[in-house]
Amino acid sequence: MTISADGSVTATSLTGTYQISSNGVTGNAFFGTVYNPNESAGSANITAIPAYVATPRTGGVTSQDSLTRGQDASADDHPYYRI
User: Tens digits of per-residue pLDDT, 4-63?
Assistant: First the structure.
């Protein structure tokens, strides 16, 4: 998954270009939604968590900035890291 500075999102598992909308910041974590602006369904929650900040769902802490995608606690088990 690649997130561009303009908020567009591309990934090998996605067709088309997606966007991110902000749902706010809580406890230093950014909450947003990844969605296809041309579709009425198929969105996903995305959370950006800075290094050394507890994840909102499980309270785990990592030494790297991370992104999670999904609505349930299992999303924290499969974070994305900057490469």
Answer: 777 677 777 767 778 888 999 988 889 999 888 888 887 888 888 999 998 887 888 989
Q: Which residues pair with 2 in a beta bridge?
A: 10
Q: How many CB atoms lie within 10 A of CB 23?
A: 13
The answer to whether 30 and 22 have CB atoms below 8 angstroms apart is: yes
Give the residue among 70, 28, 69 at the shortest CA–CA distance from 50. Answer: 28
Amino acid at the residue 1: M
Question: Domain residues for 11?
Answer: 2-81
Using a 10 angstrom Cβ sphere, with 0-12 exposed, 13-18 middle and 19 or more buried, the burial of residue 15 is exposed
Kind and range of the H or E element at 76? none
